[in-house]
């Protein structure tokens, strides 16, 4: 064996060692990718029921929102009716009611003033007698 052949054998051995050293990480990487593929597949399979449940929930929520929208529209109509009724009441009875209240206040004030005058007149002769 010549020196070139020995060098070729050493180079071939080093190449085999290099291939073996690189094959081990590649095999481990292949297993890791297989496990990742299995995990993704399981996640996909388990996400279908979750998505179906979410879809049903959203449908139910939309139904409830439509009901709330109807209730809100009815409440708005009632508010408008109450506002119109109060306007009619104010226009019809508000003015006369205020006038009646003012008249009763004025009459009660006048009656009190007259009573005070009468009491003052009745008290005046009694004061003169005491002197």
Automatic annotation (TrEMBL):
Protein known as: DUF948 domain-containing protein
Membrane-spanning parts: 6-27
Alphabetized UniProt keyword annotations: Membrane, Transmembrane, Transmembrane helix
Superkingdom as given in the UniProt entry: Bacteria
Organism, scientific name: Amycolatopsis saalfeldensis
One of the Pfam families matching this protein, by short name: DUF948
